[in-house]
Q: What sequence folds into this?
């Protein structure tokens, strides 16, 4: 019984491998049928995948931080009027655009509220483009892939109609149907590239907007904390150790 079970597993595995090979063969056949129109679409697909992966790592990993937990920890040092500890706390957190903006503001607390506001604004302008970088290209690549697919299809249809111009009328319908079927491969491949690109663009754009909103919200919250506790920072200075954090 055990041998029979193992035999069945082997048969299923071989069948799965055969199906996989058939799938790749079908993809190769359709790629060849699409002719030159497949190459610009494939180029769009490669760039779109690269942007999706890179932006996904940045927006959902490197640039992400729990702003509520971060702000709770920072409040304790601001309420205590300990500027150095506040700066060291921020410097010890995961380095993200949000922490860089807040650190820039804290470094200017001894210079006054206006300087803090200016530093926060300057840092926000510097960090925001890093969050929004390259995401917009996904929409462009999706549209380009779809249009390239349509162009390849139109080109294939033109060639198809030209080919049947001098063919036996009895064979025209068959040849025309086969030609149209092959020409539509470009449209199909273009849509398969465009749809994930547009979906990824929406997801990544939403995430980028959320991160920018977090920066703006946290910046205002920190500025208000500094203003409300200005008396505690009258004689505040930035130590040499905290100054090195700014350079980093």
A:
């Amino acid at each position: 019984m055990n041998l029979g079970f193992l035999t069945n597993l082997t048969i299923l595995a071989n069948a799965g491998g055969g199906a996989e090979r058939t799938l790749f063969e079908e993809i190769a056949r359709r790629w060849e049928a699409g002719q030159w129109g497949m190459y610009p679409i494939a180029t769009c697909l490669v760039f779109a995948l690269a942007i999706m992966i890179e932006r996904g790592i940045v927006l959902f990993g490197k640039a992400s931080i729990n702003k509520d937990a971060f702000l709770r920890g920072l409040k304790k040092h601001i309420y205590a009027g300990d500027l150095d500890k506040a700066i060291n706390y921020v410097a010890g957190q995961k380095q993200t655009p949000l922490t860089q903006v807040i650190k820039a503001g804290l470094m200017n607390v001894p210079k006054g509220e206006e300087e803090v506001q200016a530093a926060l604004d300057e840092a926000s302008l510097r960090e925001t483009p890093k969050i929004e970088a390259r995401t917009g290209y996904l929409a462009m690549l999706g549209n380009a892939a779809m249009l390239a697919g349509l162009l390849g299809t139109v080109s294939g249809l033109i060639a198809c109609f030209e080919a049947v111009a001098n063919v036996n009328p009895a064979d025209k319908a068959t040849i025309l149907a086969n030609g149209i079927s092959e020409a539509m491969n470009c449209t199909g491949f273009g849509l398969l590239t465009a749809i994930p690109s547009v979906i990824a663009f929406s997801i990544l754009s939403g995430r980028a907007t959320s991160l920018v909103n977090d920066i703006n919200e946290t910046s205002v919250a920190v500025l208000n904390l500094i203003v409300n506790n200005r008396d505690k920072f009258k004689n505040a200075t930035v130590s040499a150790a905290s100054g090195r954090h700014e350079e980093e």
User: Anything to note?
Assistant: DSSP finds nine helices and no strands in the chain. Residues 58 and 152 are 35 Å apart (CA to CA). Residues 2-247 form one domain.
